[in-house]
Amino acid sequence: MTPEQAKALREPFPAHQIGRLPKGGTTLDFVGHAAVTDRLLSVDPGWCWEPDRTADGRWDVQTFGSDAVLTGTLTVCGVTRPCVGTAPAKSFELLKQLQSDAIRNGAMRFGVALDLWSKEDLTPPELQPIPVAEAKARLVAALGGDKALARKMWGTVPDGTTVTPAVLDDLLAKATQASPPDGVGGDAADRESEVALETGDAGPGRAAASPAARQGAPGPADPEETS
Fold first, then answer.
1. Within a 10 A sphere around the Cβ of 134, how many other Cβ atoms?
2. What is the pLDDT of residues 159-189, one digit of tens each?
3. Are residues 113 and 107 in contact, defined by beta-carbon separation less than 8 angstroms?
4. 71: nearest Cα among 89, 49, 88
5. Which of 67, 68, 90 has its CA nearest to residue 59?
6. At the topology level of CATH, where does 3-117 sit?
7. Selection from 206, 204, 135 nearest residue 172 by Cα
8. Which of 48-57, 129-138, 204-213 has the lowest average pLDDT?
9. Where are the beta strands (DSSP E) in the chain?
């Protein structure tokens, strides 16, 4: 399995493919069998699931109390990993349900929808979003309190962009090289920026921030007044 294939398996699913299942007094997010199968096919059209079998070749379905259990293996991109499927023993089309659950369980071991299975945030630190208010404050501080220049620099990041450490580091690096133009700064410049925000006039070559961005998440918005 190549790093590119492993990354493709781990890609988050779009919201419309994520279902909600009431269970045990709470609601669980899940991805259905069809979406998981589509992900496996998109990465490895030759993927294979194999159930464990009895000596006579039948699926080795075992019953524990009211639950049926089927173990097996899932092979993706030449890598084979164990999987297990469970379902109520009296389920309609029991073998289909066990197969579906086993494939989803095995796919999880390859990272498919792993973020939905986990109770922890599995987002790598470098991709975790930084609160917009914090990012604004750090940018203003890096510019020595020059809010007008901070607004200008913030406006170079497209609306809807998730503010990750990399995005903020890029802005801060530019901030260390930036200096206010002659005659810009102070109360007059601050008031001019405030008027532009209030009227929606973002100036030449710049679109006004969207309402969602103005409210702070997700994506850039002009830095608010900070104390």
1. 11
2. 767 777 777 788 888 877 765 554 444 444 4
3. yes
4. 49
5. 68
6. Enolase-like; domain 1 (3.30.390)
7. 135
8. 204-213
9. 18-23, 26-31, 48-51, 62-64, 67-76, 79-88
Band (137; pLDDT cuts 50, 70, 90): confident
- pLDDT 10s digits, 35-66: 889 899 999 999 999 999 999 999 999 999 99
Strands 62-64 and 79-88, bridge-based pairing: unpaired
10 Å Cβ neighbour count for 182? Answer: 6
* Residue 6: both structure tokens together: 């492993």
Element (H, E) at 94: helix 94-108
Tell me the C-alpha distance between 167 and 182, whole Å: 28
Please report, for the chain, the start and end positions of each structural domain, with discontinuous segments joined by +: 3-117, 126-214
Nearest to 86 by CA among 72, 127, 17: 72
Report DSSP letters for 129-179, one per residue. PPPHHHHHHHHHHHTTT-HHHHHHHHTTSPTT----HHHHHHHHHHHHH--
Token pair of 121, please? 């945030």
SS3 state of residue 116: helix
Amino acid identity for residue 187 in this structure: D
